[in-house]
Design goal:
Layout lengths: L2 E5 L4 H12 L3 E6 L7 H11 L5 E5 L5 H8 L6 E4 L8 H4 L1 H21 L5 E6 L23 H20 L3 E6 L2 E2 L8 H11 L2 E4 L6 E2 L2 E2 H16 L8 E6 L5 E2 H12 L4 E4 L15 H7 L7 H15 L5
Parallel strand pairs: 1-2, 1-4, 2-3, 4-5, 5-6, 6-11, 7-10, 8-13
Antiparallel strand pairs: 9-12
């Protein structure tokens, strides 16, 4: 049994990670500001399920509040901090760039400083596949250059990796980053394609498909994302405490799928055809993502398991049940 602080605990991946750790007997303190970037009621639903577990404690607050972070980390011996809180979304960074500077840069700095002061053995943090930017060598490998971000969001995530590396070097801290590829699944984010498409198809409205449908994504079911994170947590726990370093891993499925193929699978699951509006490429977006996950497998033995067909089916089942849709 170990103690963890998870920032962004009411978020999509944060919720599922909390559940997985609690189910295996760990103690979790969840931290989230419950912001209104998307439907807060969905975050409250996730949080309501977590609060049913006696080993879960919730603290509402911002990672920009360094005093609050210090207070939380000073109250108990945490085995690791898993930092998932961030301003998400590539397209939103065109509308509200200041949110990305405040949350993704200042917030991450505060987490690093608090973890340093309280001598946290391991800090794991969310990066993004978006750091690969204009890279066109597939699959994306950890040796590929990541110095051509195409959005402010991507730039902040690359900055996080550099900040982590410098703190590891200067202060002998163990930091592990994971570059999330397109995560999906139950309780997913409403601004992501699968959620948007499902809602639109069921209501008879059109879906927007950019780059005229020529888009590929490494769709990764949330249980595989969480499984990879936990494998990295456990790997670090097995290492000696003086073996400090900074590492980054791809957390993806390892298979790139065409967006129109995902839509076809979704149509089959819903029993209804989509009305598709094909649109040009959007600023800040990339045509294709594809993860080389060999480093994660080599270091932890973890292999993603859920196919796109299985994952979309499980998401649709959850969506219908959650929103009370019959048929």
């Amino acid at each position: 049994m170990r103690n963890f602080l998870i920032t962004g605990a009411a978020g999509f991946i944060g919720y599922h990670l909390c559940q997985a750790l609690l189910q295996r007997g760990d103690i979790v303190v969840g931290f989230d500001n419950m912001n209104a970037y998307y439907d807060v009621s969905l975050k409250e639903s996730r949080l309501g399920l977590l609060r049913k577990k006696t080993a879960f404690t919730f603290v509402k607050g911002d990672i920009e509040n360094q005093e609050l972070l210090d207070s939380i980390l000073g109250k108990g011996r945490f085995h690791a901090v898993i930092h998932l809180a961030a301003q998400a979304g590539v397209r939103y960074s065109l509308e509200c760039p200041e949110a990305y500077i405040s949350s993704n840069l200042t917030g991450f700095f505060n987490v690093l400083e608090a973890a340093k002061r309280h001598k946290i053995p391991h800090i794991l943090y969310a990066s993004s596949s978006s750091v690969y930017g204009a890279n066109q060598s597939y699959p994306f490998t950890l040796s590929d250059k990541t110095d051509t971000p195409l959005s402010l969001y991507a730039a902040t995530k690359k900055a996080n990796e550099l900040m982590a590396h410098s703190y590891s070097h200067m202060f002998d801290m163990r930091l592990t980053g994971f570059r999330f590829f397109t995560a999906y699944g139950p309780y997913g984010r409403p601004d992501m394609a699968l959620f948007l498409f499902t809602k639109a198809i069921l209501s008879g409205g059109p879906i927007q498909v950019f780059n005229n449908g020529e888009m590929w994504r490494d769709f990764t079911y949330v249980s595989d994302i969480v499984g990879g994170i936990i494998a990295l947590i456990d790997k670090s726990h097995a290492l000696t405490m003086d073996a400090n370093s900074s590492a980054v891993y791809n957390l993806g499925c390892g298979k790139s799928e065409k967006l129109t193929d995902m839509i076809r699978i979704l149509e089959n699951e819903l029993g209804k055809k989509a009305i598709v509006n094909f649109l040009p490429m959007q600023k800040g977006d990339v045509v294709k993502t594809s993860a080389d996950v060999s480093a994660l497998e080599a270091d932890t033995g973890f292999i993603p398991k859920v196919s796109l067909e299985e994952g979309v089916g499980m998401f649709v089942s959850w969506y219908k049940e959650f929103y009370g849709i019959t048929g």
